[in-house]
Fold this sequence. Notes:
mainly alpha
Amino acid sequence: MNVDDYVSESGRGPYQAWNVPDLVPLGTQPVKLLLVLESPHRDELKAVTPVAGGAGTSALGYLLQAPTKGDSLGAYIRRKHDAGDYRVAIVNVSTVPLQMKAFGTGSRPGLSAHDWDVVRRVRTSTVRSVTGTTCAEANQAGDVLLRVLQAKVDALTLDADCVVAPCGVFAQRFIRELRRLPVAAPLKVVHPARNQWPNGGNHPNLLALRELFALNT
């Protein structure tokens, strides 16, 4: 097992214990708004749901413009899906954590220190291309993530007016390199961690995202 096996985990491989499934339709229901984020963190691992915890609560509060009483964006969208409403979907570029601190004191994958350094290079790279770092292993892992993301997006039925919103520079880098994205230009927004959505709430793209969310939930 190596880094490529880890970042390609889909819930059926050797790292399935740390896989947080995307929130996507089970069939061909059309998606109107697709949120793309980086990877799960500690709260997401605990909830087994994307965009949980503080970031998820902050994000949902911003989108609903109302107190959420601890509810998270991921839990909110999961309930919508359970009710048969799949207009909003959430995809992580990686469905397993890309930070060691996400595991806390609990069990963690058996990656070596070198493996985690490769993962760190993938996650923190500032180069424009997914495979443009100075580390061949990081480039290979980035390519694996890109191919997995491509397959996940290809498997979705995107409405003709679907808006894809990559949240944060990591997700934006991967979305930019997809070969086929049959929708309008992505709506780039900051990552919702650290209350960045409420704090940047007057940014035109965030306001547009909030409007789209209201129209589709």
